[in-house]
Amino acid sequence: MTTHDDTTNPLINPPALPHGVPAFDRIKTEHFKPAFEHFLAQSQAALDEIRFNPDAPTFENTIEALERLDGIMHPVISAYYNFTSFNTSKELMEMSEWVTNLLTPHHIAMMQDEGLFERVKTIYDDRQNLKLSTEQKTLLKKTYRGFLGTGIHLPPEGKVRFQEISEALAKASEEFEQNNIKDAEANPIIVDDIAQLDGIPKDVIGAYAMAAEEKGLTGKWLISDAASTPVLIYGKNRDLRARVHTAGMEQSTSGTYDNHDTIMKIITLRKDQANLMGFETYAHMALSTRMAKNPETVLNFLDRNLKAYRPRAEEHLNRIQKLAKDMDGITDFKPYDYAYYNNINMQRSFNIDNQEIRQYFTLDNVLKGVMTHAEKLFNIRFTATDGKYPVWNKDVKTFDVHDQKTGKQIGVFYGDYFARSGNKQDGAWMNSFRNAGIDQDGKQQIPLILNCCNFIKPAHGEPALLSLDEVITVFHEMGHGLHGLLGKGRYPSLNGTNVTRDFVELPSQVQENWALEKDVLKTYAFHKDTGAVIPDALIDKIIAKGNYAAGYAGLRQTFFGLLDMEWQMIDPANVTSAEDVEDSVIARAWLMPRNGNGMMSTSFGHIFPGGYAAGYYGYKWAEVLDADVFAKFKATDLYDRKLGDDLRRHIYEKGGTRQASNLFRAFMGRNPDPDALLRREGLLPANDNAGTAPQATQKRKGPTPAP
Question: Is the terminal CB of the chain with fewer CB neighbours within 10 Å at N or C?
C-alpha cells in the first residue's frame, strides 16, 4: 500500500470544526485515494475484531458493532460521492473505476463471510428471547436481510457469480452516469444572435450571457441543459426550442458517450442477479421489501392511473395543439412546442402571466419562506451561519437548525442552489453528509444535510427569480432535508431517508402542499423591486390554476413509472433496441412519439445508475399518501400544533426504524385512502370525510392495500 503524509489530508486528519463538519474548502482530488486506503485498512481491522471476537455473539458486540463499522468508511465515501455530484472534475470522474474496484469487492467479501454471518444468524434466531427495542429489532432484521440479499446463502460458485455481477453493475452504473455528465458538458447550446432569445425573461438572458462570458464567449449566450427550461416555456423562436429540446433528448444516444450498450449491460446484469437470487425479474427482487411488495401491485396501481389520466391528458393536448395551429399555423406539432403553447394557454385561461409571478419569487425570500414554514410546522429554528462552516463553493449557504422547545441544535443544513456547467450534475436532490445517530464513540451525532438545485444564476447584482415549479422544488427538497434533520434514531443506517423507495417521497411531497397556500405565500412572495407582498388577486389566480393540466402531468409521471417497470421486467434477450422498448410504452401511456433520434432511457438516471429502479412509481404512490396526509391538515389547521408534532414524531423522526405502512397508520390512524390524490386533482368528487377517517379499532391483518 502506498505511503502518504496523512497529517495534511483533511479527510484523514480533519481540522477541529464545529460538530465535526467536513473541511470542504480543503478537500482536493489527490486526498481521496490515500483516504480510501487508510479507512479501508481501519475498516478491515474493525471487521476482524467482530469476526474473531472470542465472546459469544450479542446484539451489542455484533449488530451494533457492524453499524459502527459502516461509520468508519462513511466520511470519505460521503465526501467522494457528493463531490462527484456537485463539485466534480475530470480527475475526480477518472477515479470512479478505481473507487468501484476498491469498495465493491470489499463489501461483497464482508457480506459473504460465513463466519460473520453465523454470528448474525445466531442473534437473529434467538431474537424472540432477546429484550430488544423496536428500533433494535429493525436493525437486526435489516442486518440479517443484508447478508441474504448479498448471496450468503448461495453455493460457492453462486457467491463468486454474485460478486462478479455486483462489480460489473457498479462499473456500468458509473459509466452511465459519467456519460450523461460528459455529454451534457460537451454539448451546450451557443446562441450568437440575441434575437433568437425573443420572449425569454431578461434576467435569464443575462444569466446566459454571464455563463458564456465565463467560458470566454463574450458577446454570446450559453444555454446549458440545466438552464434550458425557460427557452422551452418562453422562447418564441421555434428553431431554438427544437435545438434545446433535441440536445436534451439526444443526450447519450450516440457518439463517445452513448449509453445504449450500457443500458443493456445493466438490465442483463440485473436480471442475472435476480435469477441467481431466486426471483423471476429484477422488479420482483427489488419490490419484495417495499410497500408495494410485488410488480403486480405496482402495475395495477399504474394502470389505474393510466385510465384516470389519459382521457384528460388527451383533451388537454388537443386544446394546446389547436392553439398552436390557430396562433401560428403549426400543423406538425412537436414535443418542443408543448411547453411554449401550454404556457400561453394557461395565461389566457387564468389571466395569469408566469413572468409576472416570477417577480415575486426571489430565491432568498423563498428560502426564508420555506424555513419559516418548517419552523411553524415542526417547532424548529433555522439560523444563517455564513462563514461558520467550510463550503465547496462561495454560493453555498449554511444554517444551524435548533429545536425550539429544548433549545438544542439538531442539525446543520447546506443549500447549494445554482447550476454550474461542467461542475455539477443536473436536477435537484437532497443528500446527507452524515445522518443522525451514534458515532464511533457511542455518542449521538447531529445530521449534516444538503439540498442541491440547479437554478439559473442571475447576472451580477440581480436577484435569482424562480418560477412556480422551482418554488415547489425548494419546498420538495426541503421536505427531504427535514426528513434527514429531524431523525432521532440511534442508528444512522435507519435514520432520515433510509426508508423504502415508495415511502421516501412522502416527507418531501407533502411539504409542496403548503407552498401555494395563501397565508404561506404572503410570508415569502414579495416583489423583487418594490418589496410589496403578492396581491390577493394574483394569489387567487395561482390557486385557481392549481389543477391545471393535472391529467397531462399525471399521465407523464405514469409513463415514467411504466417505462421503469418495463426495463426492470423485460427479458434482455427480447430487446431489439432501446428505442423499441420506449416506443412500446409510449404507445400505451403517452401522447406523442419520440422526436427523431431522441429518447428518455439513455439519460434516465433515476432508474439506471440511480436508486429508483423498479421504484419510479413511488412518486405517484407517495403522492397518494401525501394528499391523504395534507387533507388532515386542511380539515383542521395548516399549522395545528398537535398535528405538526405528530407528523414530526411519527414520520420524520422515525426514518426507517419502523415499517413504512406502520408509520403511516401511526399518524393517520388508518390505512391510506386510495382516492386521495385523484380527489385532490379534481378527477374524483370531493369527499366530506377525506382526511378524517375514523381511527382503526384493531390491527389490520394481511397486507396493506395499495394506495
Answer: N
To 10 degrees, the CA torsion angle through 151, 154, 157, 160? 10
Query: Please, what's the b/e burial string for 79-89 (b: 16 or more CB within 10 A of its CB; e: otherwise)?
Result: bbebbbbbbbe
Q: What is the per-residue DSSP string for 681-698?
A: TTSS---TTTT-PPPPSS
In the chain, the amino acid numbered 218 is: T
Which residues, 6+ apart, have CB-to-CB distance to 385 below 8 Å? Answer: 398, 399, 400, 412
Domain boundaries, the chain: 6-111+113-149, 187-251, 256-351+550-603, 363-544, 618-680
How far apart CA 646 and CA 630 sit, in angstroms, is 13
Q: For residues 77 and 99, what is the distance between their CA atoms, to the nearest angstrom?
A: 9
To the nearest 10 degrees (0 to 180), the angle between helices 114-125 and 32-51 is 60
CA distances from 684 to 329, 551, 678 (A): 36, 12, 6
C-alpha 198/C-alpha 330 separation (Å) is: 19
Cα 455 from Cα 259, distance rounded (Å): 26
Identify whether the C-beta of residue 273 lies closer than 8 Å to the C-beta of residue 170. Answer: no
Residue 148, judged by CB atoms within 10 A of its CB (0-12, 13-18, 19+), counts as: middle
With residue 172 as reference, give the H or E element that holds it: helix 156-186
Contact 525, 531 (CB under 8 A): no
Q: Which CATH architecture group holds 363-544?
A: Orthogonal Bundle (1.10)
Contact 502, 621 (CB under 8 A): yes
Cα–Cα distance measured from residue 568 to residue 631, given in angstroms and rounded to the nearest whole number: 34
SS in 3 state form for 96-140? Answer: HHHHHHHHHHHHHHHHCCHHHHHHHHHHHHCHHHCCCCHHHHHHH
Strand pairing class (189-191; 221-223) = antiparallel
Instruction: Judge whether 6-111+113-149 and 363-544 match in fold.
Output: no
Q: Could you tell me which of 63, 93, 69, 64 has the C-alpha nearest to residue 81?
A: 93
**H or E element in which residue 646 lies:** helix 641-647
Cα–Cα nearest to 567, from 150, 267, 130: 267
Residue 488 to residue 649: CA distance in whole angstroms:
9
Amino acid at site 102: L
Residue that the C-alpha cell 395569469 belongs to: 352
Place domain 256-351+550-603 in its CATH homologous superfamily: Neurolysin, domain 3 (1.10.1370.10)
CATH class of 6-111+113-149: mainly alpha
Cell 395545528 -> residue: 640
Q: Consecutive 10-residue runs of the chain (707 residues): their mean pLDDT?
A: 72 96 96 96 96 97 95 94 89 90 92 96 97 97 96 95 94 92 88 97 93 93 91 97 95 96 98 97 96 97 97 98 98 97 96 93 98 98 97 97 97 96 86 93 92 92 94 98 97 96 96 97 97 97 94 97 98 97 97 92 93 95 97 97 98 96 97 95 68 29 35
Helix (H, G, I), strand (E, B) or coil at 35: helix
Residue 400 amino acid letter? D
Closest C-alpha among 508, 591, 539, 66 to residue 335: 591
Give the β-pairing of 397-403 and 189-191: unpaired
Q: Greatest CA span in the chain, whole angstroms?
A: 82
d(CA 45, CA 106): 13
Taking the C-alpha atoms of residue 223 and residue 228, their distance in angstroms, rounded to an integer, is: 6
Strand partners, 414: 398, 450
User: What residue has cell string 399504474?
Assistant: 302
Fill in the amino acid letter for 689. Answer: N
**Which of the 8 DSSP states describes residue 539?**
H
Rounded to a whole number of angstroms, the distance between the first and last alpha carbons of the chain is 53
